[in-house]
Amino acid sequence: MSESELERFRDYVKDWFIKNAPPEMRIRRGGIGWYYEDPRFIDAAIRWHRTLYNAGLVGISWPKEYGGYGDDVRKELVVRDVALSLGIVYPGCPGIGLSVAGPAILFHGNEGQKRRYLRRMLTCEDVWAQGFSEPCCGSDLAAITTKAEDRGDYFVLNGRKVWSSDFHLANYYLVLARTGSPEERHKGLTMFIVDTRSEGITYRPIKQINGRPGFSEVFLDNVKVPKENVVGKVGDGWRVAMTTLNFERLNIGGAFAYAAASAARHLVEVRRDADTLALLEESLAIKELYDRMLMLALRGEIVGPEAASIKLLASEILDKIYIAAVSKLGPETLVEGDLFEWSFGYIDSKGYTILSGTSEILRNLLGELVLGLPKGV
């Protein structure tokens, strides 16, 4: 596709969004996922997602045999850019299906899993959550204690997961569990697809500082999982987990990068000075870095630890933008009105440097795995 054709596609997408996006699918400046956590908007968001899919604007570069459109990866970047520049929800489906579970199954799943799950992810018929972190182990994932015991035709899972995003909406759960001994650490892990309707699963919503229950603590008590639901090989869960985490960081970082660029543009509109212009310039550079890395991923290249740089940079610039906004715009951001949404962004942004790997953990990861620095330096 030529650059002129891509620009015509951009014009088409912009016109389509303006004509078709319902009012409830307009997001606040720099908003991230608010509609996933507000029960008034969940059904509307899912309907909107299916409208996008039927219009050919979701799954653009996914393989046709699994429900995608098999088209130019650059179109996907255009759609994301146009949607956020207009303040419109994209893609719409809650959970981690498209961003995390999808890549895990595309790269490591068998043919049956790909045909069973991927199309339904794209249409949002299924919503997915992720079960990695545990009360004992967030940053040290190799130390998880959730146990999967081989019972012949199935595994039995017992354990406790925490910080599972959108679990209250999900019907499938991507769970990392231990099939080997604790001493094996990375080598003793296996990835499972778990039906959230299975007997033995209970959960407790975790209320956040913004008042919304976006996360859950999940309890697995003698949960039976068929062996056909193992993703990859038994004992090879660490490799699958690294793929999912790298894509998670890339996609979350991408959402933050696009949100930061949008928020910075709006901040410059209301308070143009050297500080806000510098924030805009930095956010646009991070967005460009994300676009380049995403194109490699959408072309079928497995995302490596470099993806952590996107999440690290984008979460920190977004936090800086909201700090600058409430500092420069003052008390008006705390009062109902045109500037009120900045205070919500400020509250939300505090968690962006923590989720999917804290900034400190990501700096260690980049230093060791990308720069080759020795541990402990």
TrEMBL record:
Ranges for domain Acyl-CoA dehydrogenase/oxidase C-terminal: 235-368
Needed co-factor(s): FAD
Gene Ontology terms: cellular component: plasma membrane
Annotated PANTHER family: ACYL-COA DEHYDROGENASE, ACYL-COA DEHYDROGENASE FADE34
Keyword entries, A-Z: FAD, Flavoprotein, Oxidoreductase
UniProt keyword annotation of DNA damage present: no
Domain spans labelled Acyl-CoA oxidase/dehydrogenase middle: 129-223
Family classification: Belongs to the acyl-CoA dehydrogenase family.
Name this protein carries in UniProt: Acyl-CoA dehydrogenase
Organism: Vulcanisaeta souniana JCM 11219
MF annotations from Gene Ontology: flavin adenine dinucleotide binding; oxidoreductase activity, acting on the CH-CH group of donors
InterPro entries referenced in this protein's UniProt entry, alphabetically: Acyl-CoA_Oxase/DH_mid-dom, Acyl-CoA_Oxase/DH_mid-dom_sf, AcylCo_DH-like_C, AcylCo_DH/oxidase_C, AcylCoA_DH/ox_N, AcylCoA_DH/ox_N_sf, AcylCoA_DH/oxidase_NM_dom_sf, Mycobact_Acyl-CoA_DH
Highest rank taxon of the organism: Archaea
Signal peptide per UniProt: none
Domain Acyl-CoA dehydrogenase/oxidase N-terminal, chain residue ranges per copy: 6-124
